[in-house]
Design brief:
Shape: globular
Helix content: 25-40%
CATH class of the largest domain: Alpha Beta
Largest sheet: 7 strands, mixed
Radius of gyration: 19 Å
Number of domains: 2
Low-confidence stretches: none
CATH architecture of the largest domain: Alpha-Beta Complex
CATH superfamily of the largest domain: Spore Coat Polysaccharide Biosynthesis Protein SpsA, Chain A
Number of strands: 13
Number of helices: 7
Strand order of the largest sheet: 3-2-1-4-9-6-12
Mean pLDDT: 95
């Protein structure tokens, strides 16, 4: 039987790290790549449930994931975030998938739990992520420093069973992550040569709201869908505002 390593990037994840690692206890190896800025008990708790903890300075998400792949002992790797859980059904499907000679990468759907509710629309489902891969046939795009892109040398397939993602628990958490991610997103756009116009500061958020609430039927998620659409519009607008600031400097 093929063997599997799991990798998890962690920064102050003591609340989530144990249930995350327990949900992949069926894997042959579990690795936690710890950001040295961590100040809580993440490392101690991960070791208690049998994971290997490797501390590595954080540059960006693509760089950290690429380094994590190199740490794995097995060719098949499953990447899982601390706030995600693998169900028994997904575990069984993964075990079957890695016995096949092809595909060499698999997209995994996610059920996003946001503010205590599963979001089925607003662009948050099926929310496919390429998480199961042969590390000898993939690499992370170094230009995508956030919301990483996996480049696959070969065919990629789609699994049916989903990861459970305990995403934003509060609006405050969403806003905190927005501050960090929009700065990284703006940097990516700048490297790509995008030059924002003044009208982009209005047009981009409006288009994002329309996309989330109307095209992706966010209205079907009720108040959650409306608030998420507004916040994603804010996210888009802040990204372009920061891009313009970078350009002005």
């Amino acid at each position: 039987m093929s063997k599997l390593s799991t990798i998890t990037l962690a920064l102050n994840e003591e609340t989530d790290i144990v249930p995350c690692l327990e949900s992949v206890a069926w894997a042959d190896e579990r690795i936690v790549v710890l950001d040295p800025r961590t100040s809580d008990r993440t490392a101690e708790l991960a070791r208690q449930v049998g994971a290997r903890v490797v501390e590595r300075p954080f540059v960006n998400f693509a760089d950290q994931h690429q380094a994590a792949l190199a740490l794995a002992a097995h060719d098949w790797v499953f990447s899982i975030d601390a706030d995600e859980r693998a169900t028994p059904e997904l575990a069984a499907e993964i075990r079957c998938a890695i016995e096949q000679p092809s595909p060499v990468g698999w997209w995994v759907p996610r059920h996003n739990i946001i503010w205590g509710r599963e979001i089925r629309h607003t662009g948050w489902y099926p929310d496919y992520q390429l998480r199961l891969m042969r590390r000898s046939r993939v690499r992370y795009d170094p230009e995508r420093e956030v919301h990483e892109l996996v480049i696959v040398d070969g065919e990629a397939g789609y699994l049916k069973n989903a990861l459970v993602h305990y995403n934003y628990r509060t609006v405050a958490e969403f806003l905190r992550k927005t501050e960090r991610y929009t700065l990284l997103e703006a940097g990516i756009l700048r490297k790509a040569g995008v030059r924002p116009r003044l009208r982009s500061l209005v047009g981009q958020p409006l288009r994002e709201f329309w996309r989330r609430y109307v095209q992706y039927q966010g209205y079907r998620d009720g108040g959650h869908g409306l608030l998420l659409s507004i916040l994603m519009a804010y996210y888009r607008g802040l990204t372009y505002w920061r891009l313009r600031q970078m350009q002005d400097r």
